[in-house]
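Quick one before lunch.
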Amino acid sequence: MIIGLGEALAYGQQHGIAIAAVNTPFFEALVATIRAAEATGVPVILQHAQVHEGEMAIEDIGPAMVALARRSDSPFVLHVDHGEDLDYIERGFAVGFNSAMIDGSRRPYEENVAVTANVVARARELGFGVEGELGVMTGNENGDPSQGVADANLYTDPEQARDFVARTGVTALAASFGTVHGVYHREPHINYPLIDELRAASGVPLVMHGGSGLSADEYRQSIAHGVRKINYYTYAAKAALDAARAEAAKPEVILFGKVAAAATAGAQRDVTAFIRTLAGQA
Ligand SMILES: [Zn+2]
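Model of the zinc ion complex:
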């Protein structure tokens, strides 16, 4: 079934957990995430990032995401991840997505406010939630070369977060407090007091990007300080690749279907463990 972003985050708040938000730009990751959600019984956010368009168009994978989510008894949100403008987000809404992130974080502040408020106005007409972003995290969801190191100069300022949420009306706020996208090249250092300050100042649930590669304890502490949505892709995609490589290396395997099934199973194990950690089941 499909639920709204606000409803999923309220579930997280009520249960003191964070909602897993998984990018599924290939079918094996999608099936894996659906099965993982069903095994754990908590809401999950399925998302497609604009940066993945080169590998997979939202018009191709989006309808499959919507159909599998509708068919399932588990609750899912269909979310556009890192939409750069309203045009891309409308493409997601057109295939059945009901939630979006508008990422204006690399724009000048006033421009970020304007573009985000515009998306919120459109989403409200449809009854959909919106995630905004303030503060810069290095890297992206596509494994592009990133410094792999968070830059404290780019952390989100709590007072600006207060102003941003008040002026845009976002449902949730992605903020920079020590995580990076992709693979960490140095020990992550999460600024927990800053998470507290951002949560209090903004008044909305916080979103952590760059969720791959943190320890279970780092997830738990971040959740305890007010993070309610954690984005995840890199490690699930790596788990699928590792399982596919191992399967493909078997001499008796001569058809791709076996490799695809192994990739699904590998991603499913990884995503299930991730959801269980966020939901306090592990
Ligand atoms: Zn992100």
